[in-house]
Every structure is written in C-alpha cells, then in structure tokens.
Write a structure and sequence with these properties.
614 residues; DNA primase DNAg catalytic core, N-terminal domain; single chain; 5-stranded antiparallel β-sheet; alpha+beta; 5 domains
Amino acid sequence: MAGRIRSSDIEEVKSRTNIADIVGDFVSLKSAGVGSLKGLCPFHDERSPSFHVRPQLGFYHCFGCGESGDVISFLQKMDHVTFADAVERLAARVGFQLTYEDGDGAAPDHGNRARLLAANAAAETWFREQLATPGADPGRRFLGERGFDHVAADRFGVGFAPKSWDALTKVLRGKGFSVEEITASGLVSQGDRGIYDRFRGRLIWPIRDVTGQTVGFGARKLLEDDKGPKYLNTPETAVYHKAQVLYGLDLAKRDVSRSGRVVVVEGYTDVMACHLAGVTTAVATCGTSFGVDHIKTLRRVMGDDSGKGEVIFTFDPDAAGQKAAMRAFAEEQRFSAQTYVAVAPDGLDPCDLRLNRGDDAVRRLIDAKEPMFEFVIRQTLAAYDLETVEGRVGALTESAPIIADIRDPSLRPGYTRVLARHLGVDLAEVQAAISRTGKGGNRASPSKNQAEAPAERPASLRDLPADPATRLERDALMAILQHPELAGHDLVQRAVLTGFVNPTLAVVRDAIAATLDSFGTAAWFARVSETVPTPMTGLVQQLAVAPIPERSERDLTSYVREITVALIDRDLLRQSHDMLGRLQRIDPKERESYRALQGELMALEMERRRLRER
C-alpha cells in the first residue's frame, strides 16, 4: 500500500508548475505590474478585480475575501479535491513521477474525484469509437441532417451509445472500475435487475469543465421506441454540477477572454453550429436555465470588470424562449458587461439557421443583436392592450422599474422617450413613474457590500496605519519578498537590522532575518511564511502579491533597490540624530568619548553616502 507523497517531490512539482497557467484555466488574468497578475476572484462575487497572482513566488491572494495560498491549495478549493489529488494532477500535467513514502512507490488512487474523471474519460473514448460502428447509423444520420460531418463530430467529441443493456458497464469493469465508481459517475442507473447503462441508443456529447476534463454527458434521443426525455444528462455527481457547467466553454474560453464577448445559446448543436460558423465564443447550459453560478463562471473567464464586454443571448422567439429571456434579464445586473439579445428570423435556432442559410447568416444574427433592455421592454409591453387606459397604466407600471435599473445613466433618457412613444403618453408622466420607482426598486440584486464584503482576517494590509513610516516599511517588505533577486542578499541583510515603527511588520522583518540562509531560493518564501506566527501568514502572502507601482523591468530594478535603501537610510538617519544628541550632551572634557562618537557619526555618514551611490 502506497503512503504519503515525498515532500521533496511536492516541492519539485510546485517549482515546475506555473501557478498562472493553473489559475488561468478558471480566471482571466491581466497584468498588474511586472511579475504580477490580477483578475476577478473565483471565491467570491465582485465587480472589480482584487485577486492577485504572483507566479514567481507561486502564490495568490484576494484582497476582497482574504483567500490565499499556493497552486495546490488553489486546485483543492476550486475542484474540491484532497491535497494528494491536487499534487497528483499537477504532477501528471508536468510529467513528473511521484514517489510515495512507506509504500511500494506506485501511485495510489487518492480520492473519489480522480476515479470519476477517469471513468468519464474512458466512457468518452468508447462512445466516440462507437459512432463509427454500423449500429450508430441513426446518430450519423442525425448529425448529417444538421450539417455536421465526421470532422465536426470529432472536433466536439461527439459519440454514440449503443442500444445495449450493459455494454458500457462491461467495458468499464474490464478497465478496473468498480460498480460503486461507475454508479457514482452517473454512467449507469439502478433498476430492479441491478445497474444498467444510463445512455442507450443515443447521440452523446461530452460535457467538459473549463479545464477540459470530461465531467458528464448529454444524450439526445434518436429511436422512436426510446420512452425517455428528448435530452438526458448525467445526474448530479461529485464532479458534475449542471448549474456551474457551460457546454463549450473549454473550447471558447480563450476567445472569450481575448474578446470580452460570450454568446449564450440553448443547445449542444447550436454551440457546434456557432463555432463552425466562426462564432467561437458560443456556450450553452446543460439541461438547466442560465443562472447565478453560470454568470460567476463567465465573469471570471471574461475578466468582466470594465463594463466594455458583451454577453449575447440567443433565444427562440416562442413562449419558452421569451420566458428564458426574462429569466436571464432577472440576473442581468450581475454582469458588468453590456447584455444583448439576438433572435433569429422565422424562429430558427443557430443550428437550423446555419443549415438553411449558411455560416454567414449565423454571424449576421450575432451582429444584429439588440440591447437586452429594448428586448425586455418590448416583451413587457406585448403583454398589455395599449389601446386601453388600464393597459397603458399597467404597462407603464411594469416597464418603469426596467428603465430605472439601467446601469448607464446616460441611456435612461433615451429609453424613457422610447417608452413614452410606445405607450402614447406624455414624456413627463413616464419620467415621474421612473422617478417614483427609483433605481433597483423592483428588481433584487446583491448590493456591492453584500457581494464584496471582505472576510475578517487576523492580520491584513488593510489594517495597517497609513502614516509615512509604516508605508515605507510595508513597501520595502513587498519589494524584498516579491523580488529578492533584485534587492540582493547584502542589501537585505542590512535592511533586516533596521528598526521598525510598526510592530506587525517588524515580525515579518524578523522572519526574513531568520531565513537569510535560504534567501533567494525557491523555498525561501515558504520558509518566511512558516516562520511568522500562524495568524500572520495571510499578511505575508498579501505582501507577496500586492501590486507595486513600477511597471517596466528597468523601473522595477531601480525601485526595489531604492525602496530598500530608503529603509536603511531612514535607520541610519535616526542613528545619526541620536548621536548628535549624545554629542550635545557629552562633557567636552571627556575627549576620548567625544572623539569616539564623532568617529561613529562620520562612519554613519560614509555609509549613507555609499548607499546613495549604489
């Protein structure tokens, strides 16, 4: 039986892993200065980015909610896996063979999640192989009728589940998966006769998370004797949560992050049609309505903090599509990006539109989007008889809060005039109704304080006083921790001997002094974090990721040395001031003592001069 992963192996995996690559699978990161990145926090909802990553140190910290840690803890929290699972996933990613202590050295099957993902991966491979078999003709015909050839099927991993009681179960059992693991993966169902394949006689789409791992499947009915629903998805499992997964996001995330635009469609074939038509930012929900967790996921991938992005929803023009649009509008203000609606002519969804009118028609559909507010106002007015006084009053009462909720105040007057024109009432009457409603009067959305309330922390940069002395000490420690190679061992060795005004920062200074034997090595920062008292670990991590003001490499080198020198110079100046006071108090008759103090004072001035010449 294998035991613990060797500590040196864990450190080796961390050193070979760029934390920005791992975090980047979940969060769109932007430059926050030399060696620093930032994005929207994946652990809490926020409007502006407060989540910082420092790849050189391998640490992250959120100044909004206080979450911090290294690449291993990030994977643990994001994917809800054990420490060992996270290390093994990272090791596999960089191609490193782990060694286990107190065991035979073989990699154990740590945790349930890894086994479920492995079962899904094996099932996907088998489903894709089955699409080429004679029995999969209904599936190939379905794809062909919708304009998808074998190249398209392969691009999206489409497969086929034969009409068999337990063909997949037997394959997975043959690969070493237990009945419990296969059941937990959602690939089988339980009946009076035992377990049987959940997907039978259906076309299969793999549903992947943002990192590209297959977490579940969506299956489309093909056969007339299939009494099940038109679409059947994997049930909720330890790795598949339909309210958090968006089909196609693994393929779209790069272009979504680059363009700041995402197109939300309604089905698997719509995603395929959009991507093949050149709309490569299309995603879809998986058997559930578009909700809050989907928004959080998209905002992180988009880097949705500037208000310049675009979220475009495509809906069928029927009653169900209109209902879906209104549900999406209910959560619209959770985006900083502008929201739009694109409705295809003649009730065609993107898949049918591409089939009947070509790729260009799909692109034109997206380009012809209209603001979400216009669409919603029109849908709201359509529910009332505007030929009657009662109808106009009811329409105004329901529409006024919609206009009051428009985030951009420069747009409200224009929409106010549009509403007055549609209703055929005086502009002043509409303006009065909107004023009475007040912004946000009828639509619930989380307040900024609710969404971004920071968790209480025992020690935080926010808790430090803003006096100049503390700011200098804070900035110098940030420079040393983040760029030890620029500060240099000799300068830091002198800096940690200086007196500190702030007692909290003095503890960090002492931890740096105590670990100078490993200064500048890959393990040095971790040692500093371990040396400070536990309640202060978070503060050290904040100092290591907080942005410093210089942007270019050239400016950064000068800044790091200058701020460290300034800390030392302040201490030398204090010592000089103390010695001048002693000189004034000393009896002139004590010539030896007087000359000794003068010598020390001159030595201090010479040291200050040498520092300034560095």
